């Protein structure tokens, strides 16, 4: 079972119809909006990949807003804001200064302290490293949004010297390395409190998927019994407390909180993602199954209304997971994957139609193409999001992928053709 909170689905949909009758989800892929769409059938999708756009500028004389828009990572440059303004849409995004404070790996430490959330032993280093900071250590740049490439594990003095030399001149967050299970709690800050939704096991630095130790590789939904007794409740408490501190900064809307569950069942706060996360796709499936409004809709209502009705529920935990298949070399995509439900035929993904994440059957996978023919790619860049109707890995500190997950990863990689440049 799983405890979570949210807006009752019927009431939430009624409020959205009234206050957001023109609503657009804007991203490079419809994967997150697609899970919300059965509950918000008038939701539109606009395909834009701002990470591949250059020389973006806000329009000088934008048309008056006639609808609303929500974007995956609006704080990642001004692309989402420029697109919404030129399209005559009001972008519902968190206040920029509040989001920047929360996302910053250094300023977020004070926010954790005010929330009463424990963290690994941590130092902020601008010049010399304190003598107490001995390897193994985790070194982070203060801005490390979306990719995880700005996080390094150092296990020897030589590695530490190399990282400090590479990132010299920057203020760095340096933390003692702690073994544990990475857990993400998805939440949404409203004007009357924090909605605490589903928990997931975050898969990080999986060698079969990424060359980067700290890179996000996927998630899988987890129930309370997947963690030591009392830990899931503590994760929810920390999320609520952090959300309340975000509200004090003026933040409203969806966010994710990354935690670490140690072998002795301690819960340590690691970082805040003040935006939608990829895992929200799975979270919204869990919310719909529990009779709750998907997070995308809750984010909209939190942005527009002074209050929304929220209820606590206990529900069966869906066994859903997703993996991020990334490029392993520099090149240009020649043959890609077509988004949709697939089954394996002779070791290759074969599309068998469109489908809902909740309705996936054993042996199927829902694939979302995030790189398309003609796109240049580099190692670690996302190619395909692979969603499965079951867990993809063991729930532990150093997870092992299931045989089914490994088979699907191989099949997706073989189906993709990347020409060297």
UniProtKB/TrEMBL annotation:
InterPro entries: ATP-grasp, ATP-grasp_PylC-type. Residues 109-309 form the ATP-grasp domain. The keyword rRNA-binding does not apply. It holds the Pfam family ATP-grasp_3. It comes from the Bacteria. Signal peptide: none annotated. The keyword ATP-binding applies. Keywords: ATP-binding, Nucleotide-binding. This is ATP-grasp domain-containing protein.
